[in-house]
Write a structure and sequence with these properties.
about 0% strand, about 90% helix, about 80 residues, mainly alpha
Length: about 80
């Protein structure tokens, strides 16, 4: 009977150690996931900024063509 009690205590101790290790792994995984999400968010924000600048440049070019009133060179060559 005493052997069973000792084994049970050893098993409980091992289970507690396993639970502690699993909690550590869980905490580290949460940090890794958080870091990846922050990194991707930062990358996407930079890409959005670049795209907004490109769109602004295109809009400026289009606005410039509208105010000019002339047809583009290709249109005048082909009589469009």
């Amino acid at each position: 009977m005493k052997e069973r009690l000792v084994k049970k205590e050893e098993i409980e101790k091992q289970l507690e150690e396993m639970v502690a290790l699993l909690e550590q792994v869980d905490a580290k995984m949460e940090k890794v996931i958080h870091d990846v999400i922050e990194d991707r968010y930062s990358q996407h924000q930079k890409e959005i900024g670049r795209l907004e600048k490109r769109i602004a440049g295109i809009e400026q070019r289009l606005d410039g063509k509208k105010t000019d009133g002339r047809l583009p060179l290709s249109s005048t060559l082909y009589g469009v």
